[in-house]
Amino acid sequence: MQAVYVDHAATSPTHPKVAEAMLPFLTEHFGNPSSIHGFGRKTRHVVDEARQTIAKSIGAAVNEIIFTSGGTESDNTAIIGAALANQHKGKHIITTAVEHHAVLHTCQFLEGIGFEVTYLPVDETGQISLQTLGKSLKDETILVSVMYGNNEVGTLQPIKEIGAFLKEKDIYFHTDAVQAYGMVELDVKELNVNLLSVSAHKINGPKGIGFLYVKEGTKILPLQHGGEQERKRRAGTENVAGIVGFEKAVQIMLETKAERQKKYQSFRNHMINVFKNEQINFRVNGHSTEYLPHILNVSFSGTNVESMLVNLDLAGIAVSSGSACTAGSVDPSHVLMAMFGESERVYSSLRFSFGLGNTEEDIQKAAQETVKIVKRLTKQ
């Protein structure tokens, strides 16, 4: 049985060219970039080159990029770092109810040490209201964190509009762009963001490496202490092989962006058409026009998400839900709960996400197997 992987929003396979680029830095070029001898200078050079490539990909300056271990560390560093460095101005933070847990749990941690956090609601498409954001601002507000594209339903937030609005208020703005990077055009100057988080393993790079963009002049406190790496903003010997792999993944991403956008939109349309033609009862979750093309979240009325996941796995189809499946129970997705409340859609939704290696035949198979399972479960 040929397995089909349509869970690229969880993690993506490492591109063969990325692995190839990394290999010499796992075997031959092992120097510490902080060492002044030849071994160190060799690795320092490739780290500097990668930083240039990555900075250019979002319209940033080289000194505005901090390498991290991934999206979670980038989110933590941005939010905790900005909160602690600016608490003399106020202790109020605004985020949304549909953020990744790397943001939500970080905000909950800050609440535990005396900060106040407002969690903005979303409408049924998963978007926040600029008006509600405006009404939530206080004199003590120091930071707003809103994700660019949702990892569960793909909905895009009005980041450019939020950035322009907050710039006038002199409030720091952070966006978690982990799912959006590589799928949409990102220019930090146009977006007016102070902080932006990215992870390599979502764009066919290696796990364990990411970056945080910190706009020049933005004050954050480092979370790690030790050496003076990353201009004293993130101590620890650099993950050179990971950084090299990240750069290669970014280069491939930039070369293939238009082609991938078109392909994933085609996959999305194809899957929806199969569901329509087979006349099963389904609804697409998320915004109808403002969405990431590689993410398709669908609720199948009359089904149970746990049964769907188990049956699809047995059929060789790897998908996911926004739910945390545990023995005998499924915790509902906080994103879908924020969108629909206590509704059947929350308990019957699957996320299909497309990426490297997927073919139209894969999408056809995944869609047809899903249809079979839905028909079987709803018949029961």
From TrEMBL:
One of its GO terms (molecular function) is cysteine desulfurase activity. Its cofactor is pyridoxal 5'-phosphate. It holds the Pfam family Aminotran_5. It catalyses: (sulfur carrier)-H + L-cysteine = (sulfur carrier)-SH + L-alanine. Residues 4-365 form the Aminotransferase class V domain. Signal peptide: none annotated. Transmembrane segments: none annotated. The keyword rRNA processing does not apply. Keywords: Iron, Iron-sulfur, Metal-binding, Pyridoxal phosphate, Transferase. The keyword Iron applies. It comes from the Bacteria. Belongs to the class-V pyridoxal-phosphate-dependent aminotransferase family. NifS/IscS subfamily. NCBIfam families: PRK02948.1. PANTHER family: CYSTEINE DESULFURASE (PTHR11601:SF34), CYSTEINE DESULFURYLASE FAMILY MEMBER (PTHR11601). This is Cysteine desulfurase NifS. It comes from Bacillus taeanensis. The lineage of its organism: Bacteria, Bacillati, Bacillota, Bacilli, Bacillales.
